[in-house]
Write a structure and sequence with these properties.
This protein is an alpha/beta fold and 493 residues long. The chain contains 21 helices and 13 strands.
Length: 493
């Protein structure tokens, strides 16, 4: 199976585009097929410098690099791989012009010499006549100054005089175009709903419609997976396949991504570039897992999927038709789950430079891995790690209000006695391990008719200065007996 991802370099890769790329990648890999990247850069006015590089970097970061087409070489430079190229549309203009000429010769397309003023005048007239969405079709073309109202000699004369023109496809009158979408089932369009789409612009560049169809045919694409915004263009593409005598590929139009209020995902309400999420520190495993589930239901309670598991389990027929809400809370939850799945040794190595940059004492700390293990299930992003382990290296300033906890029945009046009990208990412990500290705490609490939390909450608050942190006895073991007792002595209540 050959699939493709064909973005336009008019901006950095959209998060919805990354989901489309993921779906195309999964379908290809299920059959040990080819995932191809093609850059559709025919809209030169909107092209953004660096966008192609950003698209490729993001795909590599996510672990779904293209097998063929536009790729990165071993030194991270943009190059092309495969014998179907070039895979950048602006480098294929002669190919599109050839097929535009074929369509002209077959009578399936025509030269249109209408000026922008002519088109605008047509739209104004149609709107005044009660047509809110005018389009260039069979009801319009005969009233315009296009090739269909001119003799062949007049057309050739205009071409000879280099008069500006576009090439439009000719939609057959009364034609009905239907197809079966892999997600949406049978879809049908009447000919009157389809306009005479421009195929070749006056600057010689093809529109998306012509270039897309030609490339998918010549690059042997088996299934076109793209956003539902292209659904209304599919009948034009199917007609082009028919005009050119080609077998159309399968189509699957994936649902839109939506904001919480079910409006289309937009920058106005949140981050939309995939790069925004990499910059925030999301793991590729978490982001891909999240995107896969945006519109796809595995049919089981399973929520965590590796890329390999997605290849095994993914199926287009389980993609929903309706839009998928981009739930950032679910994404953050998945981020936490994947953070916890990182092997402890690897986790320590990955946060070490982050912590050492802010806390120099951590740079040569031989016990760093132990400290890292205590925070792994308490952070969502590596960037949070320095703040979370700071209390191991710097004595925190303890707000006495933090020591009080109504839920744990730690009152301000009871604090002095609780702290004295802690000091006596800890001073008598020689086997300074988490297990022994916890065991002794339980016995002491029982002896003094206290809840365990009445001892451990103040101890944790004194040692960490934080409302949320690793457990009191875990922290105490790492800090050592002397440091723990000194921190307790420093508290005045």
């Amino acid at each position: 199976m050959r699939t493709r991802f064909a973005p336009s370099p008019t901006g950095f890769l959209h998060i919805g585009g990354l989901r489309t790329a993921l779906y195309a990648y999964l379908v290809a890999k299920q059959s040990n097929g080819v995932f191809l990247l093609r850059i559709e850069d025919t809209d030169k006015e909107r092209e953004v410098i660096g966008a192609t590089e950003n698209i490729l970097r993001t795909l590599h970061w996510a672990g779904i690099p293209p097998d063929e087409g536009v790729v990165l070489d071993s030194e991270g430079r943009v190059t092309q791989r495969g014998d179907k190229g070039p895979y950048i549309q602006s480098e294929r203009l002669a190919i599109y012009q050839k097929y535009a000429e074929d369509l002209l010769e077959k009578g399936c397309a025509y030269y249109a010499f209408d000026t922008e003023e002519d088109i605008e005048h047509m739209r104004d007239n149609e709107k005044r006549a009660g047509n809110p969405a005018p389009k260039y079709d069979a009801s319009i073309r005969m009233r315009m100054k296009n090739a269909l109202t001119l003799s062949e000699d007049e057309v050739q004369e205009k071409l000879k005089n280099a008069e500006p023109y576009v090439v439009r496809m000719k939609i057959p009158d009364g034609n009905v175009v239907s197809f079966t979408d892999d997600i949406r089932g049978k879809v049908e369009f009447r000919g009157l709903e389809i306009d005479d789409q421009v195929l070749l612009k006056s600057d010689g560049y093809p529109t998306y419609h012509l270039a897309n169809v030609v490339d998918d045919e010549l690059m042997n694409i088996d299934i076109v997976i793209r956003g539902e915004e292209w659904l209304s263009s599919t009948p034009k593409h199917l007609l082009l396949y028919e005009f050119l005598g080609w077998q159309a590929p399968r189509f699957a139009h994936v649902p839109l991504l939506l904001n919480a209020d079910r409006t289309k995902l937009s920058k106005r309400q949140g981050d939309v570039a995939a790069e925004d999420y990499t910059a925030q520190g999301y793991l590729p495993e978490a982001l891909l897992n999240f995107l896969a589930l945006l519109g796809w239901n595995p049919g089981t309670p399973q929520e965590l999927f590796t890329l390999g598991e997605l290849v095994e389990e993914f199926s287009i027929d389980r993609i929903q038709k309706g839009g998928a809400v981009f739930d950032t809370e679910k994404l953050k939850w998945l981020q936490g789950q994947w953070m916890r799945k990182i092997p402890a040794e690897d986790f320590a190595k990955r946060i070490h430079p982050v912590v050492a940059e802010e806390i120099p004492a951590a740079a040569l700390d031989k016990a760093f891995a132990k400290k890292a293990s205590l925070i792994q299930d308490r952070i969502h992003f590596f960037s949070e790690s320095a703040d979370m382990v700071r209390f191991f290296y710097e004595r925190p300033e303890v707000d006495n209000k933090l020591l009080v906890n109504e839920k744990q029945n730690v009152t301000e009046a009871a604090l002095p006695e609780i702290l004295n009990t802690l000091k006596r208990m800890l001073a008598d412990i020689d086997d300074w391990t988490d297990e022994k500290l916890l065991e002794t705490s339980k016995k002491t609490a029982k002896k003094h008719n206290l809840k365990l939390g009445q001892l451990l909450w103040p101890l944790r608050a004194v040692l960490t200065g934080r409302k949320f942190s690793p457990g009191a006895t875990e922290v105490a073991e790492v800090l050592g007996k002397e440091e723990v007792l000194e921190r307790l002595e420093a508290v005045t209540v």
